[in-house]
Amino acid sequence: MSENLNSDKDEKGAAVKFPPPIIFLLLMLFAYGINYYYPINIGVSSKIKYLGWFLIISSLGLVIYISRLFARIETHIEPWKPTTAIISTGIYAYSRNPIYVVFCLIVIGVGIVLNSLWVLLSFFPSAILVYFIAIKKEEDYLQHKFGEEYLQYKNCVRRWL
User: What pTM was computed for the model?
Assistant: First the structure.
C-alpha cells in the first residue's frame, strides 16, 4: 500500500508538500533541546547503546527497502504525488504504514544512543501528529481512489504493527 496524500487536483484538492518525516525530526530536535536544559537520562549502558545503533541502522535499511519497493511497483513514495497502486506485499502485508513505524524506531534508537528520555519519548507526539496530518488524509484518499480494494486491504492489515 502506498503512503501518499497525493496532489491529484481533481481528487485531493491542494497538495500538502510537507514531508511527514520532518515531523519526527523537528520533535526529536525539540526534545533534544529540552534534554539540554532538563536532562533525564534513561540509564543505558554502553552495551544497550548498541541496541540504539541497531535500531537506527536497520531502520535506515528498511527505508531503502521500502523506497525500492515503491520504485518496483512504479508508484510515488512522496505523499504529494499521485498513487498508482496499493502496495500489499512485503512489509506492507504486515503494516499499512511501515515508513512511519520505521521513523518511530529511528527516534527510539536515537533516544537510546543519546541516553535521553525526552528524545526517546518524542516518538509519541510525532506519531500522533503524523496520524492527523498525514495518515488520516492518506487513508481517505486511498479509500476514495481504490474503493473496495483498499477497504479489503485495510481490513486485513493493521495501521502500525
Answer: 0.88
Does a structural domain hold residue 106? yes
User: Cα dist. 33→30, 107, 122, 130 in Å?
Assistant: 5, 15, 12, 21
13 assigned to some structural domain = no
Report if residue 7 sits inside a domain: no
User: Looking at residue 24, which CATH number applies to its domain?
Assistant: 1.20.120.1630
DSSP notation for 34-80 = HHHHS-------HHHHHHHHHHHHHHHHHHHHHHHHHHHHT---STT
Would you state the torsion angle of the CA atoms of residues 132, 135, 140, 141, taken in this order, to the nearest 10 degrees? 130
pLDDT digits 0-9 by tens, 98-140: 999 999 999 999 999 999 999 999 999 999 999 999 999 999 9
